Structures are given as C-alpha cells and as structure tokens.
Amino acid sequence: MANIQELLDNAIDIARIGGNHTLKYFKKDFEVISKEDDSPVTIADRETEQIIRREILKRYPDHGIIGEEFGKTNPESNIQWVLDPIDGTKSFIHGVPFYTTLIGIMIDNEPVVGIINAPALDELCAAGIGLGATYNGEPCSVRDTNELSEATFLVTEIRRFQEIGMEPLFQDLLANTKLHRTWGDAYGHMMVAIGRADLMFDPLLNIWDAAALLPIMKESGGIFSDTNGAETIHSGNGFSTSKALFPKVKAIFEAHKN
User: Fold this and answer.
1) Report field, pTM of the whole predicted structure over 0.85
2) How far apart are CA 131 and CA 243, in angstroms?
3) According to the model, what pLDDT value does residue 27 have?
4) Which residues contact 208 (CB under 8 A, 6 or more apart)?
5) CA-to-CA distance for 137 and 59, rounded, in angstroms?
6) Distance between alpha carbon 10 and the CA centroid of its chain, in Å?
7) 3-class SS shares of the chain: helix, strand, coil, % to 5
8) Please, which residues bridge with residue 71 across strands?
C-alpha cells in the first residue's frame, strides 16, 4: 500500500528541484521551438522534465511517469507521476512569473497527490488525498463566496473560447461574475485553492495540466470538475471552484450544451 504522505513529501521536494532549474532560464535569452500543435517549448521545459524524471526514478525506480515532453516510462506501474515541467510556457517566455511546475501522482488511475510550484514567486501549493492542502507549508482553503455575482472569474486566454466555439459560454460566465482576470494556467487554479479567486476554467486540458489540480481542489475544500460535472482529469477540460458555487457554474455549462 502506497504511503500518500511519503509520496507527497517527495513530490514537494522534486517539484522544488525542478522549479529551481527553470529559474536558470527565466528572464534570460533562449531558443523557443514550436511543437506540432504550434505550442511553444524551450530548453528549460525539456531539461526540467529530465531532471524531475531522474529524481523520481532515483527514489522510485518502479514507478511510472507520464510527461508532456518525453512521454511514458514504466506504463505498467499502478503508480504514475504526471509531469508538466513548465505550465504556462508563454508566460515563462515573456518573463511573466505566473508559470508553474506541476506534479500529479495517480494510483490505479486516480489522482492522489498534487503539487503546483510557482518558483519565480516562491509559492507552492500541495495536497495529498486525506491529508489536506497547504500553501507554502500552511493549511489553505477556498474562500467563502456563495454567489456568482460576487465571484472572481479567471481564464488563461479569451481567444481560446472564440477558437473552439465557446464564446457564448464565456460571455455568460463573464456576465454572471463580478470580476474577470487572466491569471491563468495552473496558477489560476491555485488562486482558487488558496482563496484569492473563486472560479478558474480551462476549456482545453491535457492530463499533465490536470493531474495536480484535482487533489489540490478536493483537499482545499473545493471541486475540480469537467463541464459535465464529473470530478475527473481525463475529459480534456476542467474548472475549479468552491462547493457553494459549483452547482451554479454547472448550471451555466448545462445551459450551453444544446
């Protein structure tokens, strides 16, 4: 039986090691390469994932790894570490500190540990199922906002909603919330978990974007869900919010299904 506390402690340590490496390139000159999907990647992304992978396999040689840059290792293992070395690469490239290093751990395909490390800001949010959530080592929780009309709503970029035909949905969320900002990517989800914002929505997510988010939201007293209301990291989209606001946000998504 895996020890969640031990996995959490090691994941925090490894996320700090990886995040610290990104700082060697942050606000420096480096080559930016476009991947097949036209998303950017840098030497910092690739080196950081390699460093994180080495650390994991040094401590847990039999564990599996799923990474954005280098795919799968030990795919047959029931314990899988899911990595995004730099989430928010566009922010990183522009010298904006809202990028993060993400580590999620799944046991039998269920997320049990999540780490969001924002190294340029020295902010780290972590959670293990049944162990609570912490922000820089202190307990954290979603804030007590009961009405969408009082909520702060975050997304990564507005153009994405236009490109995938979700502009009406976005406008509906905008109309029903008090304040909107683009403090996006995983950093936006962390803002919800630590009580600085109330709703963060990503219309498109990969597993390495989402794996860390579900345990953190769950343990901070909130919910990470897909647009159908399922608490899963496998749907390709997701939003973070409080339990009080969840049914109200879900109702807006349902209204735009047809």
Assistant:
1) yes
2) 19
3) 92
4) 66, 67, 68, 82, 83, 84, 87, 102, 104
5) 22
6) 18
7) 35, 25, 35
8) 67
Q: Assign residue 185 a region (left: φ > 0; alpha: ψ between -120 and 50; beta: otherwise).
A: left
Q: What CATH number labels 4-139?
A: 3.30.540.10
Residues 203, 160 contacting (CB under 8 angstroms): yes
Tell me the pLDDT tens digit for each residue of 141-153: 999 999 999 999 9
For residues 197-206, average pLDDT? 97
**What tens digit of pLDDT does each residue of 73-95 get?**
999 999 999 999 999 999 999 99
Question: What does the domain layout of the chain look like in residue ranges?
Answer: 4-139, 148-255
What is the pLDDT of the chain when averaged over all its residues?
95
| 4-139 and 148-255 in the same fold | no
pLDDT confidence bin for 36, thresholds 50/70/90? low
Single-letter code of the amino acid located at 165:
G
- For residue 206, CA distances in Å to 112, 143, 196, 235 come to 17, 27, 24, 9
Query: Euclidean distance between the first and final Cα of the chain, in Å?
Result: 44
User: Residue 109: what are its φ and ψ, rounded to 5°?
Assistant: 75, 10
Where does residue 250 rank: exposed (0-12), middle (13-18), buried (19+ CB within 10 A)?
middle
Assign a CATH topology to domain 148-255.
Answer: D-Maltodextrin-Binding Protein; domain 2 (3.40.190)
Q: Are 52 and 17 in contact (CB under 8 A)?
A: yes
In whole angstroms, give the CA distance from residue 105 to residue 128: 9
- Contact present, 68 and 84 (Cβ < 8 Å): yes
